[in-house]
Amino acid sequence: AEGEGRALETGGGIFNALPLLGSAPFVVVNGDVWNDVDPGRLRLGRGDLAHLVMVDNPPHHPDGDFHLTAAGRLRGTGSPRLTYSGVGVYAPELFASCRPGVFALAPLLREAMAKDRIGGEYHAGQWVDVGTPQRLADIEQLLGYSG
């Protein structure tokens, strides 16, 4: 997301879009991931501010992001750790204390995790972070894309 010629980071970009999204929970899918997650089936748990889809840690991110408990709750600490897929559903209330500008999403999520307000699920299906030219070439080969 861009604002005044500078990147807003994920948190700032979502905050900037809130007036367009309304008051209902909304799905976010990062633009640099390829996956077979069905975002239409994602739901917030009662009282939750977000529900994140987690995947196995890719080689370029071996330490993961968050711990997913057996009860489907996400924690900022604990192991094993999984990687946030870039797919999730969010309640606008997660951003209630935010102000316009550049800010990352992870600190907001960690704060809500500490209050047990973030659910999650493990996705065993297809997922690729297409964030580099080499990973883009890899997924194009996988899909049989010949440009």
Describe what this molecule looks like in 3D.
With 147 residues, the protein is an alpha+beta fold. The protein has helices at residues 9-21, 106-114, 133-143, and strands spanning 2-3, 6-7, 26-29, 33-35, 50-55, 66-68, 74-75, 81-90, 118-122, 127-129. The longest helix is centred in the first third of the chain and has 13 residues, at 9-21.
Give the overall shape: globular
Largest sheet: 6 strands, mixed
- Put simply, the count of helices is 3
- Terminal-residue CA separation: 27 Å
Structural class: alpha+beta
Strand content: 25-35%
User: Residue ranges: pLDDT <50 for 5 or more in a row?
Assistant: 1-5
The beta-strand count equals 10
The gist of it:
The chain is of the alpha+beta class.
Task: Identify the notable features of this structure and list them briefly.
147 residues, alpha+beta
Secondary structure blueprint with pairings:
Layout: E1 2-3, E2 6-7, H1 9-21, E3 26-29, E4 33-35, E5 50-55, E6 66-68, E7 74-75, E8 81-90, H2 106-114, E9 118-122, E10 127-129, H3 133-143
Parallel strand pairs: 5-9
Antiparallel strand pairs: 1-2, 3-8, 4-10, 5-8, 6-7, 6-8
